[in-house]
Amino acid sequence: MQPARNVGERINSGRCEPLALGIPGIEVRRFVSEECGAQGFSTGSAIFQPGAQFPYHRHEVSECVTVLEGKLTILLEGRKYRLGPLDSIHIPAGVAHSSSNENPQQRMVVHNAFGSARPTRTFTNEEFPPPDQESEQPAAGVPETIRRFSQNDVYEPSEGAFFCDLFAKRFGSRGICGGYGSFNPGSSLPCHIHRYDESITIIDGSAVCLVKGKRYELTDLDTAFIPEGRPHRFLNQSANKMAMVWVYAGDEPDRVEVDPGYCSGALLWPGQERVLAAKDRADAVGEVTSWARTKDSTRNTTIHDSYPTK
């Protein structure tokens, strides 16, 4: 665990000013990055107007792209795939790729996550062989991985909240993991913390976010940056479904539940070090203090609060 950082949460608008990339028909936005104090990862979005194409380029770190609206056509060094809503692709560092929206009438929106708080992009004029066909899944031996939403395992970390993991180390990504969460009206997640930074983008409906006694409302791609060790929770207090894409600056999901009073502000937060030390002691004697999808099962672990709250 790294030394405590003097970094607080931050809410970034999904309608913030796009980056000045100069690519016709494409708006790229950065939600979480080193600019807000994030470490080890960044997130954002890209909106493609009909027919828009992002030229071939490379990154020095892992990138995971999740489709939010429309259909993405993506080329990776000549290999062609088409992804629909909530399908996700992991593009390893150094792999050249080009994205486009081939629909002549509808826009396409994607969520991006990178394994760096300061991702770079290098365009290339290198020529790749034209694809002879479109593939549903990568062939054996190629570095990219695709997770089709319709084939993902779903787990229920709390009543009325349904999650699935879209990318993680076990699926090929490095330094980042993330997934999708859908909340029925009135449902919520328990108050919890992480050992690494988190980005949460609201992609459908509206959400209430409680962070250490503060309350925020998010909608329409608004994104919350939550630093490691900061107690928080999300609630759907609306009459409609709410959904999010979450990303962690770590290889696999890891969440530790804490007393809800730390999120509402009713209890004074004792600090990440004390809470995690108590969790580690509980783990040593076999008590479960975290919730997540297990690596080899679709069943989420039991939620307990087994350390002191004062």
User: Which structural class do you get from the secondary structure elements?
Assistant: mainly beta
CATH class of the largest domain: Mainly Beta
Strand content: 35-45%
Secondary structure: number of strands: 24
**What percent of residues adopt helix (DSSP H or I)?**
under 10%
Tally of individual helices: 2
Q: Under CATH, the topology of the largest domain is which?
A: Jelly Rolls
Described by strand count, sense and barrel closure, the largest sheet is:
7 strands, antiparallel
Give me the Rg, rounded: 19 Å
What do you see in this structure?
- The chain has 310 residues and is mainly beta.
- The chain has two domains: 10-125 and 136-149, Jelly Rolls; 150-284, Jelly Rolls, CATH 2.60.120.10.
- The chain is 5% helix and 38% strand.
- It is built from two helices and 24 strands.
- The strands form five sheets. A seven-stranded antiparallel sheet has the order 1-21-18-23-16-15-14, with no helix packed on it. Strands 2-3-10-5-8-13 form a six-stranded antiparallel sheet, with no helix packed on it.
- The longest helix is centred in the last third of the chain and has 13 residues, at 272-284.
- Mean pLDDT is 90; it is low at 290-310.
What are its keywords?
single chain; 310 residues; mainly beta; Jelly Rolls; 2 domains; 7-stranded antiparallel β-sheet; 24 strands; globular; disordered C terminus
